[in-house]
Amino acid sequence: MKSIFLIGLFLLLFTHNAYASFTPKEGLTEDSKGWYIWKKFTIGQNISYWAIQMIQPKTALADELPLQDQIQNWLNSAAEKYKINKKLFVALAKCESIFNPDAKGDWRSETEEYMAFGLFQWWKKSWLKYSAVYDYREWNYNSWRDQTELSALVIRDGGIKNWYNCGKWIGWIR
Question: What is the DSSP code (8-state) at residue 26?
Fold first, then answer.
């Protein structure tokens, strides 16, 4: 059995019919991960082979990241943009929804509905109020990105008490 394996290996390595399943291409090759060139390398005096050399990887777009990473990046970015405490802003989102953009809270048994929704647990009435205050764009109540942005604006302008319980819990409200 060992000799059959060695004969097969010899034939694979040293016969003219042993080609790889690809053909080297000239010039730049692009795929979803980056740009490449085919390059011929030589081992020893006369063993040459072709390999792909990466020239430049493509940068991952935010939407290509897992949702939790997108949320973390968005939270950090909004905190920097509006100059609010990044650590407390992230802690607030964690307290309100555990970073779940579809979180529902504040159940009302008399109406059998949740009053709060989303990453920052906005009540619809409060959302409509602050959407009107910051009316320079159209805000989407169901978008965790818009909830993050509007929350950062409200907090920047002194509205942290809209998240009183979590604000107190994380130490933003004394």
Answer: S
**If you average pLDDT over every residue of the chain, what do you get?**
85
User: CB of 7 within 8 A of CB of 13?
Assistant: no
- C-alpha span between 93 and 120 (Å, rounded): 6
Residue range 88-103: mean pLDDT, rounded: 97
56 φψ region: left (φ > 0), alpha (ψ -120 to 50), beta (else): beta
For 11-31, how does the pLDDT look when each residue is reduced to its tens digit (9 = 90+)? 445 544 444 445 667 778 787
Contact indicator for 147, 134 with CB cutoff of 8 Å? no
Q: How far apart are CA 140 and CA 79, in angstroms?
A: 19
Across the beta sheet with 34-43, the strand order is 28-31, 34-43, 47-57
pLDDT at 131: 95
Q: How far is CA 30 from the centre of its chain?
A: 23
